[in-house]
């Protein structure tokens, strides 16, 4: 990035994939530059590389060399902005490291340095109709989306993240304590944020509420549950969805657990081996989705229909879906323990 300290993008070749992921999350430009002990650029790793690595069920403790591109596109120091822009267009990349004669990175030119980008996604839907029964008695007076995590409520953090990436229209599906939520968010009108409400007079589920949209968005749109606290890079989600040309992208978070017993490997009745207390890694639904408008007619009207139902129906129809693994912070506020953990996490971050 122009005029920024290049060191924030660099990491040593002895680093792990996890350390690389942390560099990418901190610099927020979707790229890390891997350098050798002499400071020479030997590879690059993008945000997409990390997510594909996770999808392949690889370990984040592997060396960064297992995921990096060893022949990255670069430009020499002194290359004009126009020349860099031409390279980006030709090779369809978002970042180009600028290197000196010794191959050391001295700058990083990004697409946002050269072009005023507008997101392909202009619409988002926040599902905020739940009752938050497992958080009672707190939610008897305050709807779960309005609970504070740090200095802002859960729903404000979501709205602010959408505004930051240029989302122009935000729909909020409401049912339980709808008026309380609408009154609470009136302040956004004075800030120029367009918010409309989808009134659920009966529970329609996390997908059924989409039938209340006054018109189908013209482009793919984001849907998120209002009880999610996350630092997910929504711009990367949009980019990922567009690149994979699927009708729906389901964001996923990695859940890890240890089986406390020896697991038997069987073939019929024959025992082939035993693995002592193995660690399992599963990708689980994160409650965040990118959806193409042509999916909407699949959702039945005036019926409770959840995202799980929609996913299964699209799979049954043979339509292409993809998964966007989240490596940023994510937590679902379902129970009191989740709420307290999120508050502690934000306090410590």
From TrEMBL:
InterPro entries: CBS_dom (IPR000644), CBS_dom_sf (IPR046342), Mannose-1P_guanyltransferase (IPR050486), NTP_transferase_dom (IPR005835), Nucleotide-diphossugar_trans (IPR029044)
Domain CBS residues, every copy: 1-62, 68-125
CDD domains hit by this protein: NTP_transferase_like_2
Pfam families, A to Z: CBS, NTP_transferase
Name of the protein described by the UniProt record: CBS domain-containing protein
Upper classification of the organism: unclassified sequences, metagenomes, ecological metagenomes
């Amino acid at each position: 990035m122009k005029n920024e300290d290049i060191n924030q993008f660099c990491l040593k070749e002895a680093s792990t994939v996890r350390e690389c992921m942390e560099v990418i999350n901190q610099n927020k430009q979707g790229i890390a530059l891997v350098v050798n002990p002499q400071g020479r650029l030997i590879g690059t790793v993008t945000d997409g590389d990390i997510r594909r690595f996770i999808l392949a069920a690889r370990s984040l403790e592997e060396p960064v060399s297992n995921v990096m591109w060893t022949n990255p596109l670069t430009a020499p120091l002194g290359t004009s902005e126009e020349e860099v822009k031409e390279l980006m267009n030709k090779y369809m990349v978002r970042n180009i490291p600028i290197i000196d004669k010794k191959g050391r990175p001295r700058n990083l030119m990004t697409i946002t340095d050269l072009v005023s980008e507008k997101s392909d996604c202009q619409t988002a839907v926040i599902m905020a109709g739940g009752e938050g029964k497992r958080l009672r008695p707190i939610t008897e007076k305050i709807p779960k989306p309005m609970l504070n995590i740090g200095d802002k409520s859960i729903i404000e953090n979501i709205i602010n993240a959408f505004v930051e990436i240029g989302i122009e229209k935000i729909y909020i599906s409401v049912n339980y304590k709808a008026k309380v939520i609408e009154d609470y968010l009136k302040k956004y009108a004075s800030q120029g944020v367009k918010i409309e409400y989808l009134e659920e007079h009966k529970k329609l589920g996390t997908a059924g509420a989409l039938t209340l949209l006054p018109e189908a968005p013209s482009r793919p749109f984001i849907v998120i549950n209002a009880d999610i606290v996350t630092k997910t890079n929504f711009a990367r989600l949009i980019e990922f969805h567009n690149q994979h040309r699927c009708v729906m992208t389901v964001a996923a978070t990695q859940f890890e657990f240890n089986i406390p017993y020896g697991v038997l490997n069987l073939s019929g009745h024959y025992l082939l081996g035993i693995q002592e207390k193995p660690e399992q890694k599963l990708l689980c639904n994160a409650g965040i989705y990118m959806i193409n408008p042509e999916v909407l007619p699949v959702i039945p009207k005036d019926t409770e229909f959840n995202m799980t139902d929609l996913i299964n129906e699209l799979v049954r129809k043979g339509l292409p879906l993809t998964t966007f693994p989240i490596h940023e912070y994510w937590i679902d506020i379902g129970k009191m323990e989740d709420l307290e953990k999120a508050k502690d996490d934000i306090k410590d971050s």
